[in-house]
Give the backbone structure.
Amino acid sequence: MLFDFNINLLIGQMVLGLVNGVFYAILSLGLAIIFGLLGVINFAHGVFFMLGAFVAYMLGETLGIGYWGALVLAPLIIGALGLLVEVALIRHLYKLDHLYGLLLTLGLALFAEGFIRIVFGPQGLPYSIPPSLRGAVNLGFMVMPLYRVWVVAAGVVLCLVTWAVIERTPLGAKLRAATDNPKLVQAFGINVPVMLTLTYGAGVALAAFGGVMAAPIMSVDPAMGTNIVIVVFAVVVIGGMGSILGSIVTGLGLGLLEGLTKAVFPEASSTVIFVAMVVVLILRPRGLFGKMA
């Protein structure tokens, strides 16, 4: 049959889709932070996601550092790399058209993925689930791997904490003010360039955190960032470019939609997000949560 409306199948696929939705939300959140506060379309974001997974793999292979240690160290290492990228390259583009940032970060993405392919090869590398998260949880309508339960819970908490920091704290207010009127903020003794650099580093650290969490599910693959970043850009467009809340809600919602489509019409599951993007762009060009001019 073309359509299958078994309720347990529908709910189960939507729950599994929520796992993908968490990765969409984390990545689109980092993109939204970088674009909303810095005005840079960071096409290299998927590469930082991939590098987070590879750093976790290397920490395990060379130093014996397991999943939990990598979950802390990999985002810090990739975040530090992001600081260097911002200082050396990105900060020179803030006053230029967004197209320049897109082209530069696209070049960085292609270079980084090619370099990883040369060093590690094109095939995916296995990354084990930590022993404490092995097993499954019976949800009644399905048996769900414990690791995926952890991914959903940790990802949602991370997204909400990040949103709260940016939208509900003095630090977030200073960041927003620094992008709206940097000269005024500088006059109050705040080092705006340092704030912007740290913002970029935090955005890519979020991507690396997602990469570590994705490693046991997707395997550590040079193409894992490229495969997901196209979908994530669609998520950002639907939610509204630069909208923090829009990225979170849309990422999780589109993960559920993707899971639902897999249950009802599997052939359309790989395109449903892009169909949704087209519909949103026609009806509301600035996205669901974007501010209208």
In short: The chain has eleven helices and two strands.
